[in-house]
Amino acid sequence: MRKFDLLEKVEVYQIDLLIYLSNVGGTATKKELLAHLNIGDYFLSKLIEGLATLAKKSNGCFSIEVNKQTITFQTKPDYSLHTLYNEMIIHAPMYRILEELLLYGTIDTSRLCEKIGISYSTYFRKLNELNNLLAEFDLSIQNGYLLGSELQIRFFFTSLYLVTDPKHQLKVPNIDPRIYETVNSIQQILGTPISFLARKKLIIYLSLLKRRNAQKIIQDYNKQDFFFSNKTAINSQKRFIEALRKTHLFKRIDQVLGLFLVYYSFKMLPSETILLLLFMLGEEIIPANAHCLKELDLIERYSNFFIRTLNQEFLKFMKEIYPDTCLNHTHSSILHYYLTSTGYHHLIFKGHIDYYWELNDTKWAQSRHSMTVYRFIDYLKETYPVIFVDETRDTVLITKYAHAISFYEECIKPKISVGIFLEGDLLYKKKITDWWIQYIELTALAQAEPLVDNKFYDLIISNVDCSYLRKQGKYFFILTNYNEKKDITDLDQLLYTIFYSSTKS
């Protein structure tokens, strides 16, 4: 599901037009826009007219200027297309239907149609379109209610709020202070600060929990089938849930969650703490350095949890591709956390709302390691076919593995050692040395540092030509000036030459 699938057709064209202008630097000809959007002159003029009206209402946050045959789009630094989208979507009928379900738990068709100014026929047409989108999340709206597993409903609304960012609903004083206290208590249990995004997810989740309890529409279920959307290795999933209930983490979260619900006189259902923990695992709420991950790792081992199998398959595959390589402890820990989080998300949830303009990030498909990605995915499909059940979810999982493969390859890539020695003004040469170090390391091909005496480097960079400097490096590069453009171009070429000659040898 794309972020702007909820918008009206005209608004989608308007956003697409602005995306194109942004991608080409802000200005394009009418001919280019007509070709890109595949529309006629009249419709293009209506789109621009509508955007010009929105621009006037934005108090100068963005502007659309038409100068004969060119159109120019400009925004303030603190304003983006996503901001404009968020302002558009609050009026979109499909979003208003979802908002009604969130706020009231059910839909009064007559009241909603009157409130948003649409006919009954338009409402039912939009409802049908919305159900087609919700199918990806294994959810549907029937008889005025949103149907599906409780965890999926909470995951969907959390995902929706994250990409639409309804600031007016997620800021003080709109958020109950008790929710902030509970989030802080959870952070204290984890023993390490959680990210801003993780806090936001927990705030939305607990807000949903409070609201849905007040609406009395939470299903009282305790079946294992509902805990994981993917049914791979069900017996190990059951063992994992049983073991999770016995952990210190479960007991402490259970206590905090119980205090949160009892404050409002809500009954705490038996599965409530499990739902929260699974949400935290699948949405990367728990930081990579949290001490409770060791306890979770133990129960993953005990239950022979399928995520461990996936992680082992990935590492075994990478070892076969790169047999004489090994990650250091830091890189290994980062990769393990990333793979485990990816596995949890895929097993627990269905559906994905893409924040960015294109549905899927497929840049890896054209990259040099695309064949490695395809080989690994083909192996998984053959060995564990039940993992891949839905095209959208599969694409998200494949993209995650593509990122993991890219990370692994970057970690094992041999780095060119570069020593930098500059003569000149004491403070200025330090500033320029730091600049060159940062620039060189951005290439991801080399590690640079101020020259250390008696240390041999692959490359020495200097603004003085001395024989003793040349002896400290396999290659020597002399600068024309501190940061001439030609020096930058020539050095880029030399770095690539050194790198690829070292990989072939």
UniProtKB/TrEMBL annotation:
Q: Could you tell me the superkingdom of the organism this chain comes from?
A: Bacteria
Gene3D superfamilies given in the database record? Winged helix-like DNA-binding domain superfamily/Winged helix DNA-binding domain
Q: Which Pfam families match?
A: Mga
The residue ranges of the Mga helix-turn-helix domain are: 79-161
Quote the protein name from its UniProt record: Mga helix-turn-helix domain-containing protein
